Amino acid sequence: MPYLAKIFIYPIKSLDGVAVEQTRILASGALEYDRELAIFDEHSRVVNGKRHQSIHQLRSYFNISCQTFSLQIPGKDSEYIFDLHRERTALTSILSDFFGFTVTLEQNSLTGFPDDLKSPGPTVISTATLSEVASWFPGVSVDEIRRRMRANLEIGGVPAFWEDQLFSESGEMISFRVGDVQFFGVNPCQRCVVPTRDSFSGIAYPNFQKIFVQKRQATLPQWAASSRFKHFYNLSVNTQLPKSEAGKFIRIGEKVEISL
Q1: What's the pLDDT score for residue 230?
Q2: Which of 11, 16, 63 is nearest to 33 (CA)?
Q3: How crowded is the C-beta side of 195, counted as CA atoms within 13 Å?
Q4: CB 92 within 8 A of CB 105
Q5: How far apart are the first and last CA of the chain?
Q6: What is the DSSP string of 229-244?
Q7: How would you label 38-60 residue by residue, b for 16+ Cβ within 10 Å and e otherwise?
Q8: DSSP letter, residue 173
Q9: How many CB atoms lie within 10 A of CB 77?
Q10: Which CATH number fits domain 3-31+114-258: 2.70.98, 2.40.33, 3.30.70, 3.40.50?
Q11: Residue ranges of the MOSC domain (predicted)?
Q12: CA–CA distance, 159 with 115 (Å, rounded to integer)
């Protein structure tokens, strides 16, 4: 029986995620606090793992109840703790020193800063998929693949690549439910350079993308909508949610059902 096994939110885009027991759906379809904040440079470009490999070396933790943000800078013994409402200037100063250029921290509590503006809902993957992908790369753990893929919702009780049935050959969205919340699966998520790198050091795994593409193509389920893959460097599923779901909660353990 498919069920919601894990929920992850990423309060500051490109920094560490936080595992939560439940989360609220925003009017945009995004999860509350997910990618709510993002770091920008002086040219208004987002500072992320695609552009700045050093960002992988930052360790962070967002305390939802206290609204505090903890940051560990490589080479520093002490941990910095900031109140995100009152000490944002101090946080951006530390980050500017780390990156070597001036940054700002912008907030969008309505939609967050999703990669896919057309499908800002949470990304979906199965636990078995993460285990299968980890098996392709000796020395890389399931937790490490989980950190590299940065999916929001993890489905348990299903085989690897179960989530590939959440999009169709025709491009028609596939309706499914988590508890009493309706989702629409849209398309397989195209991956960037980030999964090729160690999530702590930023060092690239040799030939990661080449190995991934070969294995992904070889293990693609026969029933999967193969025409939706322009290439096979895709994993997890992008989603949209109808506005009717705003304000509802999803919780770990809830049943996941594909609408017939």
Answers
A1: 87
A2: 11
A3: 26
A4: yes
A5: 16
A6: -SSS-EEEEEEE--GG
A7: bbbbeeeebbbbeebeebbbbeb
A8: P
A9: 6
A10: 2.40.33
A11: 88-259
A12: 27
Give me the mean pLDDT over the 46-67 stretch.
94
Residue 33's contacts (CB-CB under 8 Å, 6 or more residues apart) are: 9, 11, 23, 62, 64
Residue 252 burial by Cβ neighbours in a 10 Å radius (0-12, 13-18, 19+): middle
Phi/psi for 157 (5° steps) reads: 75, 20
Return the beta strands (E) in the chain as ranges: 3-9, 18-20, 22-24, 37-41, 59-63, 68-72, 79-83, 103-107, 124-126, 153-156, 174-178, 181-190, 234-240, 249-251, 256-258
What does the longest C-alpha to C-alpha distance in the chain come to?
55
Domain boundary assignment for the chain: 3-31+114-258, 37-107
What is the chain's mean pLDDT, rounded? 96
Residue 60 backbone zone (phi > 0: left; psi -120 to 50: alpha; other: beta)? beta
**255: DSSP letter:** B
- Please write the tens of the pLDDT for every residue from 96-151: 999 999 999 999 999 999 988 899 999 999 999 999 999 999 999 999 999 999 99
Which tokens in the block code for residue 84? Answer: 């995100």
What is the bridge-based pairing of β-strands 153-156 and 124-126?
Answer: parallel
Contact 82, 73 (CB under 8 A): no
Q: Are 243 and 25 in contact (CB under 8 A)?
A: no
